Amino acid sequence: MLEKGMATAIVLAAGKGKRMGKGYNKQYILLRDKPIIVHTLDIFEKSQYINDIILVVGKEEVAFVKEEIIKKYNFRKISKVIVGGKERQDSVYEGLLVANKDCETVLIHDGARPFVEEGMIKNSIAMAEKFGAAIVAVPVKDTIKRANYQLEVIDTPERKELWAVQTPQTFQYILLKKAHDQARKEGILVTDDAMMVERLGHLVKIVEGSYKNIKITDPQDIIIAEGILSKEE
């Protein structure tokens, strides 16, 4: 049976989100009356399966986050606010380095993905506990084409084999740390943590997510997010 309060969440909020065109971190854009990052953190704060949150932010945002996010919204599970690295994987690595020594399971989650659900957190932890690595994903709805740089179609993958990856991505701590150490040693740059684990030859299991578990990256996503909130209310 899955234990309560057993995992650490590393929430990534150091990205600039240039596509938003706001001139500041997209995580702090208001969604209704609260910043996006507050909606995200609130889910992990209330989760019975999370006992610790590490928040990764930009260097110039640490003081702001401590005062205007953590203190203002009374977050109690956030044990550390740290500065992110140059790349996403660097930010994750910094989070791994400051995790508690007794950390066994770690979830990596995008700060701009505010609609993660408790069931995804629970199922991800359970799957990672059993198999070592688990990612939340949804089946691809559209037909996908592979193309070359001349925009010529190479082939059409079987749609039933394709999944759109979301977060959280959840791992046994020792496994993820080993994968990151190996990637750093080899100078490998990847787009998600599961790719590092895959490179070790380790199995990664899929936990089915939700199509509303969107990552807010551009102004149109704000409109979609507002619609999701309206429907939930």
UniProtKB/TrEMBL annotation:
<dbReference type="InterPro" id="IPR001228">
    <property type="entry name" value="IspD"/>
</dbReference>
<dbReference type="InterPro" id="IPR034683">
    <property type="entry name" value="IspD/TarI"/>
</dbReference>
<feature type="site" description="Transition state stabilizer">
    <location>
        <position position="26"/>
    </location>
</feature>
<keyword id="KW-0548">Nucleotidyltransferase</keyword>
<protein>
    <recommendedName>
        <fullName>2-C-methyl-D-erythritol 4-phosphate cytidylyltransferase</fullName>
        <ecNumber>2.7.7.60</ecNumber>
    </recommendedName>
</protein>
<dbReference type="GO" id="GO:0019288">
    <property type="term" value="P:isopentenyl diphosphate biosynthetic process, methylerythritol 4-phosphate pathway"/>
</dbReference>
<comment type="pathway">
    <text>Isoprenoid biosynthesis; isopentenyl diphosphate biosynthesis via DXP pathway; isopentenyl diphosphate from 1-deoxy-D-xylulose 5-phosphate: step 2/6.</text>
</comment>
<dbReference type="InterPro" id="IPR029044">
    <property type="entry name" value="Nucleotide-diphossugar_trans"/>
</dbReference>
<feature type="site" description="Transition state stabilizer">
    <location>
        <position position="19"/>
    </location>
</feature>
<dbReference type="InterPro" id="IPR050088">
    <property type="entry name" value="IspD/TarI_cytidylyltransf_bact"/>
</dbReference>
<comment type="function">
    <text>Catalyzes the formation of 4-diphosphocytidyl-2-C-methyl-D-erythritol from CTP and 2-C-methyl-D-erythritol 4-phosphate (MEP).</text>
</comment>
<keyword id="KW-0808">Transferase</keyword>
<dbReference type="Pfam" id="PF01128">
    <property type="entry name" value="IspD"/>
</dbReference>
<keyword id="KW-0414">Isoprene biosynthesis</keyword>
<feature type="site" description="Positions MEP for the nucleophilic attack">
    <location>
        <position position="215"/>
    </location>
</feature>
<feature type="site" description="Positions MEP for the nucleophilic attack">
    <location>
        <position position="159"/>
    </location>
</feature>
<dbReference type="InterPro" id="IPR018294">
    <property type="entry name" value="ISPD_synthase_CS"/>
</dbReference>
<comment type="similarity">
    <text>Belongs to the IspD/TarI cytidylyltransferase family. IspD subfamily.</text>
</comment>
<dbReference type="GO" id="GO:0050518">
    <property type="term" value="F:2-C-methyl-D-erythritol 4-phosphate cytidylyltransferase activity"/>
</dbReference>
